[in-house]
Amino acid sequence: MRRLGCLLLSILLTVSVAGCGQQAQKQENLTGTLEEIMDQVYENAELSQDFRDAMQDFARSEITADDAEYLIGTADIDFAEALISTPMINVAAYQCILIRMNDGADIEAAKEKILANADPRKWICVEAESTVVENNGDVILFIMGDAANTAALKDSFLQLK
Question: Model's pTM, two decimal places?
């Protein structure tokens, strides 16, 4: 009886150690420049024709460390590069930002910080009805805008490989 108990305990211990040794699969990082990723997100998203027409007047620019506080809501994240796409004239509350994080950066903490500091009323006269912060590998997507288009862009971003 004692021998059986020891055998079962050994098997249980072996299975436990083997289970702990398995690591979760690491999510692959997106390849390409942020411009290319942004193009893919817009191209593959199921957006309204009105939004697609408005996109003709969107401007894109690199976000520097000096701009991060206003555009991202915080300068306290460890990012390598960032790109914003926004209307040149803000008649509607909208911005789409891609942020490539540095190697080893805590992406989950960065997402929490971005969401906590997001200001959907930063345009003063208009307010974004939806705020999305998601990541795909080492790239974070931060969108503020209307619910339908932010959802479509989020879905498009998360499907990228």
Answer: 0.83
